[in-house]
Specification:
2 domains, Immunoglobulin-like, 4-stranded antiparallel beta sheet, disordered N terminus, 17 strands, 10% helix, single chain, 2 helices, mainly beta
């Protein structure tokens, strides 16, 4: 009998320690994404995770993310009976993790690596309906293509067992912004300065170059033909935001980006 007690102690102590550790945030790799290969149900419940929609949101434009830009991402989970909740989110393409997460609320969220965010111990408290965790995400380099966010959420009754726990998984796919203009022109052609721009910017291009300014939705907001090599382009009437300059000269094309303050 004593031997049996010893065996049970060795089994229960690691299990209890694991539950306490996961309250403070599980290790990376449990979002239910294709690359992670598992979600939180492997530990918390024998039941498969339920699939839900619209639990991941962001301010990434419908036209897609701009490489290198930073956006806000949120996981918002609906619950009525959960005493505590936990989550984990990652971002990836079909072949690799993509983008970089940045913690903006270190009370409720923590970074497990550049590609995974999870809850803290304080972050398991349900704060509203929906219960929301927020963070920032820096978009990956140009040419990455579509990126999908995957999140797993654990709704628990906090009874120190996996009985009654419910796991949900959700996803959100965003595209890379592109207006379809290949950047084949020499990098010395069409440099914009100053950048960011207050009222105007300077642009040096060959004479007779066609110039278009396009917003993030791909709409042409200004069009001009270069009559001189050195141009001063007035953008004071444009709203603040990110714009792209299409530069077309003979058979060559280039794309430049500027920020309008």
């Amino acid at each position: 009998m004593k031997t049996l007690y010893r065996i049970l102690i060795f089994i229960l102590i690691p299990a209890t320690a694991m539950l306490l550790a996961f309250t403070a945030g599980p290790p990376a790799g449990n979002t239910g994404s294709p690359l992670d290969g598992q979600d939180c149900s492997f530990c918390h419940t024998p039941l498969p995770a339920g699939h839900v929609q619209n639990w991941i949101s962001s301010n990434i434009p419908t036209a897609g993310y701009t490489p290198g830009e930073t956006y806000t991402v949120a996981v918002s989970a609906l619950t009525i009976v959960a005493v505590k909740m936990g989550f984990q989110i990652t971002s990836e393409t079909q072949v690799a993790k993509a983008g970089t997460f940045i913690i903006t609320d270190d009370t409720r969220t923590q970074l497990k690596n550049n590609f995974t965010v999870t809850h803290t111990a304080q972050g398991t408290t349900v704060t509203g309906l929906p219960n929301t965790w927020t963070m920032s995400w820096m978009a990956p380099e140009s040419g990455t293509g579509p990126v999908t966010f995957y999140a797993a959420v654990n709704e628990t009754n906090n009874d120190n067992s996996n009985v009654g726990d419910l796991i949900y998984v959700s996803s959100l796919t965003v595209q890379e912004f592109s207006i379809g203009i290949p950047e084949t022109l020499d990098q010395q052609l069409g440099q914009i300065y100053p950048n960011p721009v207050n009222s105007y910017f300077n642009l040096v291009v060959p004479v007779h170059t066609k110039i278009k300014i396009v917003d993030q939705l791909g709409r042409v907001v200004m069009e001009q033909l270069a009559n001189t090599a050195s141009m001063k382009i007035d953008v004071s009437n444009l709203e603040s935001g990110i714009y792209f300059v299409q530069i077309m000269h003979e058979d060559e094309n280039a794309l430049r980006r500027f920020v309008k303050r």
